[in-house]
Each structure stands twice: as C-alpha cells, then as structure tokens.
Amino acid sequence: MHPVSPRVSATCFMASVAIAASTAHADLIEEFDIGSGLFMSHVQVDFNNGNAYLFNVSYMEDDLSGWDLMLEIAESMDDLVDLDYSESQWGVFLTGIAIGDDHDWGDGSGWPDQDDYWAYWITGSNAQGLPMEWASSPVGASDRIVHDGSWDGWTFNIDGASAPQPVPAPGVLPCLLLALNRGGRARRG
Questions:
Q1: What is the fold of 24-167?
Q2: End-to-end CA distance of the chain
C-alpha cells in the first residue's frame, strides 16, 4: 500500500469536509456514463425519498433536447431505467421515472395538497464541471436544446417543487472516503 502524502490528504480532507457539509442530505446512489461523442451533458434525477442518480451522457449531435437525453438514458439502460410519459402538441409530459428500486409517479392531480409531478430544472457547469445554480426551466424538456456541459435535473418532491440536491463531485468521493478512513486512526509516534 502506498502512503498518501500529508498535503494530498489534507487537501482531500478540506475539500471533502466542505462538500460533505453542503451535501449532508444528498444520497447519490449511483453515477452512470452513457453514450459516446465529443459533447457531454449531465442529467440528475432526485426521488421523493432523497435518493439521487447522476447520468453523464456523451453525444455527437449538437441539436439534442433535454428529452432526447432522457430517452437515451432509458434506451441505454432499459434493464434499470423506465419512463412513463405522454406526448401532445405542447410537448412531452413526464409522469413517472423508475430507476432500480426507486420510483415516483404523479400527474399533478394531487395539487394543492401535494406536488405530485416531476419538476424540470436546468443549469450550466462551473469551472469544476459541477452544476451552477439550478433554475426551473422556462420550456419543456422536448423544447430545450442542450449544450456541452449543460445540466438537466428532474425532481419529485410532494412537499413542493425543489431544485436538485447538491451531490458530491465524483472525484471527491474517493477523497472523502480516504479522509474519513484516515481521520479515525490514531498516530503512533
């Protein structure tokens, strides 16, 4: 086993503490890389139970919609991901997403007692490749053209539509585990 330099360990620890503090409620279940191509967009799906999934979708075309990304995810992972939706002249209406054991379905009929629908959020990437501040999309997923580095978020929260929860950057997870593992050890002199 190779020793970890104190500088790397301290840097990882500081980064992991800062990110862990801002993501205490997030539970990133799994991250998936899908497709191939020059461009990459990210899709985060947050379920009502707090579980979140992150999909990094690579593609070649420069005119894909947010809905095209969802279809690519469902087609590429048809044994794990299932979508329930309807289409009309106004676009696509997503009513259900199932990923593994996590699933939420709603068509908005529970309003005003509960927000039982999938809310659609968008943002771009910051310098670290992480999402900037999320905003409710002014257009539907079938009308939004994605771009390299864009982020789409789908959230289901019966207590009120809320932006996707922050999740740790994938490269920070190993640092966080390393820092937590090393943090509990006593030093021998």
A1: Ferric Hydroxamate Uptake Protein; Chain A, domain 1 (2.170.130)
A2: 20
Q: Strands, E, within 2-80: which ranges?
A: 27-35, 39-46, 51-59
Predicted TM-score of the model (pTM): 0.76
Q: What is the pLDDT along the chain (189 residues), one digit of tens a residue?
A: 444 444 444 444 443 434 343 333 558 999 999 999 999 999 999 999 999 999 999 999 889 999 999 999 999 999 999 999 999 998 999 999 999 999 999 999 998 888 999 999 999 999 999 999 999 999 999 999 999 999 999 999 999 889 999 976 544 444 444 444 554 444 444
Pairing state of beta strands 39-46 and 51-59? antiparallel
CA dist 9 and 99 (Å) reads 35
CB 68 within 8 A of CB 177: no
